[in-house]
Amino acid sequence: MHASNGCRHHEEDRKEQEDIRATPKKLFDSTPSPPLPRTLPLEAYAGLYNHKAYGDFAFRLRTYEESGYQHPLRETHASDSVLYGEPEYLHSNLVLHHVSGEYWLVEENMFIKVQDVPNSYSKAQFEIGLDGEVGAVKIVLEPSLQGDAAWAVFTRVE
User: Fold this and answer.
1) What is the rounded CA–CA span in Å between residue 135 and residue 158?
2) pLDDT tens, residue by residue, 42-79
3) CB 109 within 8 A of CB 69
4) What CA–CA distance (Å, rounded) separates 56 from 5?
């Protein structure tokens, strides 16, 4: 009986990992192949961003090892580094994986979660100003909202 439970859990884990790897295609259904490169070097996106209701997000450049989390999408990510976000208001962290151009997959990991599987995924889009610098990042934080209302715009403050 224990062996069948172990097999069932292994199969459930495998299915969950497959679903996670399919997430970018689900959220970004018209991604070009190959994906478009980022406009700027990865470190140019790091910084402090603010939203009047959500507060500050500090995005830092980190390697997967430095983030201290097992990322199921690591094998689909060309770089060994990610943008790691630490919002001041949530009991979570955000890991941004580049998808194409200025579009990114947001992986939200709850601190109270005991498994190595992220709680949720959403989308982000960086906005580059005429000066060639990152001016803001839009993140879908309320996926139940439709259209533009789902996007929260965080302005870069440093």
Assistant:
1) 10
2) 999 999 999 998 888 899 888 766 655 555 555 555 55
3) yes
4) 44
CATH code, domain carrying 150? 2.40.128.600
Say how far apart CA 124 and CA 119 lie, in whole Å.
Answer: 16
| More confident call, 145 vs 75 | 145
pLDDT of 102: 95
Parent domain of 58:
2-156
* Whole-number Å distance between alpha carbons of 54 and 89: 7
pTM: 0.76
Report the number of distinct structural domains present in the chain.
Answer: 1
